[in-house]
Amino acid sequence: MDITLQCIDCEKQYDPLELRYTCDCGGLLDVIHDLDRLKSLPLKQLFDERWHSRSFPYSSGVWRYRELILPVEDQFIVSKPEGNTNLYPAGKAGEYAGLRRMFLKHEGENPTSSFKDRGMTCGITMARLLHADTVACASTGNTSASMTSYAALAGMQAIIFIPEGKISYGKLTQALAYGGKTFQVQGNFDDAMVLVMEVCKELNIYLLNSINPFRIEGQKAIGFEVLQQLNWQMPDWFVLPGGNLGNNSALSKGLKELFDIGLITKIPRIAVIQAEGANPLYKMWKEKTAFKPLRQPETIATAIKIGNPISWKKAMRGIEWSNGVVEQVSEQEIMDAKAWVDAVGIGAEPASCCSIAGAKKLVEKGVIHPDELVIGILTGHLLKDPEAVIRYHTGDLKSLGIESRYANAPIRIEPTLDAVREALYEVRRVSR
Ligand SMILES: *Cc1c(COP(=O)(O)O)cnc(C)c1O
Ligand SMILES: [Zn+2]
After folding, report:
1. Residue 93 pLDDT exceeds 80
2. What is the pLDDT averaged over residues 210-238?
3. What does the domain layout of the chain look like in residue ranges?
4. Does 274 contact ligand 1 (Cβ within 6 A)?
5. Cα(301)–Cα(295) distance, integer angstroms
6. Would the CB of 116 count as within 6 Å of ligand 1?
7. Ligand 1 nearest-atom number relative to CA 349
8. Contact 256/321 with Cβ under 8 angstroms?
9. CATH code for residues 87-111+216-400
10. Could you read off the pLDDT of 194-203 as tens digits, one per residue?
11. Which atom of ligand 1 is nearest to the CA of 379?
12. pTM tops 0.85, yes or no
């Protein structure tokens, strides 16, 4: 293969077909492409030619960019196909954030309803290339939903480790349905992560968390696809939530590579948004201190409820490359933003709505200008976490300190026309 693995700390290189996730020194690994060779290819033209392809593998919004992602032969590729997600004008949700030109990239429109599918198609493809028969991950939910689906397609056994009682139904449902063997770990995500790394090492199982550098490669395609949807016009900002920090690391790596091969002339700025209760990257960036994991992360946005993110170093590097920022948002800010994203008819799970809550905060602070072109990434589908929606709209989140400011509760009525007339009159009066 035309790629190598390289340590982000000591730069030691490894064969991509060697089974390993970290360097001998413990550092994270990067997939390194031959950028000089890529420079000589008419990439934009290739990507644009494949844009409307209906055939495998270019019907995938990941494999359309294969030269920049993973140069493998078609026969190994496991694809659903993923990507090709919509880029919506944010409308009133953008106005809520104080922005005139905001778009929302809905990664919840992937096959298993989160962006994880973009990384997983590459991860499972590598698993096949390496003849793995069993794959595993620790997950707050979406990684397991994605991995179990792709593993089933590829005929592999999937083993997932989830934090006990802290995974939303939309996600657990998928993992069970797709046949993933599910271990509920008595502990939080960070405990499950430590366990799965040991399990994979000792039991010869292929690890598909975002420490796996091939997953990062697939997730780069979110940025590529946005640029292509914008006709290669450059946004000023990408805003996205940060949990284990693989996704923002992927986005920045992809944009940096496009810049290095001369396909774009500037790197858009990246804003990583964390929940206040799970904010180790924010603290490190804001206070310019050493990285310190958080013991007891807490947030309603379970997809980013992570205290010891694996990819913090890659995230910091990407923020530097993109002149980016890190911001934090409260539980109330997340759910208020979510109410807006949902009410405009787009909808997303709580973690995703950090993108809007964070953009709003950065506009208020004068970091993002109201006229800048801003892409908010919606990482997961609304139905991933129905409980958060129902509890919000029925005013049932007070115990978590969250007020239902934009509640839309069901209205109980008697089964008569008069009752409807009266209720509608009241609805219209209030909304006026
Ligand atoms: C995984 C996930 C995140 C966090 O992404 P990281 O790469 O872990 O930072 C955010 N939102 C949703 C919906 C996710 O599934
Ligand atoms: Zn190293």
Report:
1. yes
2. 97
3. 1-33, 87-111+216-400
4. no
5. 17
6. yes
7. 13
8. yes
9. 3.40.50.1100
10. 999 999 999 9
11. 13
12. yes
